[in-house]
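Hi all, posting the design record for the shared folder.

TITLE: backbone redesign
STEP: 1 of 1
STRUCTURE INPUT:
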């Protein structure tokens, strides 16, 4: 994904449910491809391809210890994505608060009009 910003790469990696499942496993502990493949309905080469996408997005790092290669969750990109989403959550919360206040004012005005007539 040459020329793509890192946040887009992270969201693209997170868009796949298999990769999200892998991240959930890695949130519990570091794991090898064999360990990550066990609960998934796919081959180890397919899981390896998903791991390459996650590594490219900097969501995981991989270390070698002897013949084993373990994957480790890297949380910084997840924090950046969460921060980006949180800005919009605050925007919508504020917008919904303003809408609720407006609707309350409209209802109060309608009640006042009914009492006067």
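Okay, here is what came back for every position:
SEQUENCE:
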């Amino acid at each position: 994904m040459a020329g793509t910003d890192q946040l887009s790469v992270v969201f693209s990696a997170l868009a796949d449910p298999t990769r999200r499942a892998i991240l959930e496993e890695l949130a519990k502990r570091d794991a090898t491809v064999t360990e990550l493949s066990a609960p998934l309905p796919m081959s180890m080469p397919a899981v390896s391809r998903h791991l390459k996408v996650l590594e490219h997005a900097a969501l995981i790092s991989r270390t070698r210890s002897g013949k084993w290669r373990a994957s480790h969750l890297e949380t910084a990109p997840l924090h950046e994505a969460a921060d980006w989403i949180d800005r919009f959550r605050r925007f919508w919360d504020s917008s919904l608060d303003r809408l609720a206040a407006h609707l309350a004012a409209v209802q109060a005005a309608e009640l006042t009009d009914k009492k006067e007539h």
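COMMENT: The CA atoms of residues 49 and 81 lie 22 Å apart.
Let me know if anyone wants the other runs.
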